[in-house]
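[09:14] KT: can someone run the structure on this one? pasting the chain below
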Amino acid sequence: MPEYTRYPLADAANAIRMISGAQHTGKLVLDIPHTGSSRLVVPPSAVRVFRTDGAYIVTGGLGGLGLFLAERMAAGGCGRIVLSSRSQPTAAASDALERIRATGVDVRVECGDIAEAVTAEKLVAVATAGGLPLRGVLHAAGVIEDAALTNITDDLIERDWAPKVYGAWNLHNATADQPLDWFCSFSSAAALVGSPGQGAYAAANSWLDAFSLWRRALGLPATSIAWGPWGQIGRGTALAESTGMAIAPDEGVYAFEALLRHDRAYTGYAPIAGAQWLSVFAERSPFAEAFRSTGHGATGTSKLRAELGELPREEWAAKIRHVISDQVSVILRRSVDPDRSLSEYGMDSLGALELRTRIESETGIRISATGITTIHGLAELLCEKLTPVEAA
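[09:31] RB: done, C-alpha cells below
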C-alpha cells in the first residue's frame, strides 16, 4: 500500500472527496506549485452577498419587483441602496421606501433614464458619496412591448432595447473603477425558450446574457438570470398566476441570493415541471424538448406518483425516502444518513435549489427551502402534501 498519494492543488476537490468517502489508503498530499498563481475559492455559504459597508444600485428600483428586492437586500445587510427609475415614486412606492428606511438602511432615489450615460454616472456618484464603495449592481430595468414579427418597427425595438442594452452598457462604463462583488442583470426566459410576440424583448435579453459572459471573459463580475414571470409582484403577475407558472417571491429572492453566492454566469429560472405551455415550445425548441422527459405522461401523472398509486399508503414514506436518497446522492456524490441534517453533508443553497427542482419534477409538489432538513423529514412532508393530491 502506498504511504501517500499526491494530487495537484487544482485537483484538491477530488482529493477531499476521496477522504470524505473513505476511498483512499495512506495519506493524501496536495502539491502546491512554486511558480504561477493560485486562486482561493470562498465556500458559497461564506460569501457576503450584501455588506453593511457597501453601496448597491438597483435599476427599475421603484417597480414592484425592484422595491421587493430592495427590501430584502436591506434586511440582508446592505449599507446603502440607490434605486433608479424614470419616474417619481408613487404613493405606494413612497410607503415602501419609508418601511425600508425604518430599518436603518440609507435608501436613496435617483430619477433618470438609465439608457443615458449621465444617469449611470449619477447613480455611481450618489452610491459612493462619502467614500462608500460600490459593491453590487442589480440591473432590473426593462420595457416590454409585444408585437408580432410583421408589426415590429425600429421604434419598438428601440423601446425594448434601450433600458436593457444601453442601460447595461452605461452601468458597465460607469462602474469600471468600482470594487464590485457582483453585477447582476435580470434577463428573461423569453430569451431562453422564446415567447410569442416578444421577439424584440427576447433579443434585448439575449444581448444581456451575452454581455454577462463577455464581462466574465474580461475578469469582471457578471451574472445573468433569465427569469420566468414572478407571482404577486412585477409586470407579469396576472399571466403568471393564470397559467400556474408563477415564481413565488420568497422562492425568487432565495434563488437570487443563491446564484450570487455561487457566482453563476448564466442561469434560467422558471417553473417548468407540468407547465401546459411547455408542449407548445417543445415542437420547436430543443431546450424545451429536454424537459419533456421528466417522468410526466400525457395525463400529467409522474412515474413516481403512478408507482405510489399502486402501493398501500403505509409504504409511501419508504418509497419516497428511497427516491430522495437517490437524488441527494447524485447532488452530493455520496450516501447520506436519512436522519442526519443534509447541511452536515455540505448541502448548500444551490444544492437545495437543485433538490427542490428535482422533487417538483418528480412529484409536481413545490416545497420551501425550510422544508429541506433531513431525508426522513422531507419524505414525511411530501407524504402529507401528496395525500390530498392523490385523494382528489
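[09:33] KT: thanks! The chain has three domains: 1-41, 47-269, 303-391.
[09:34] RB: yep, looked fine to me
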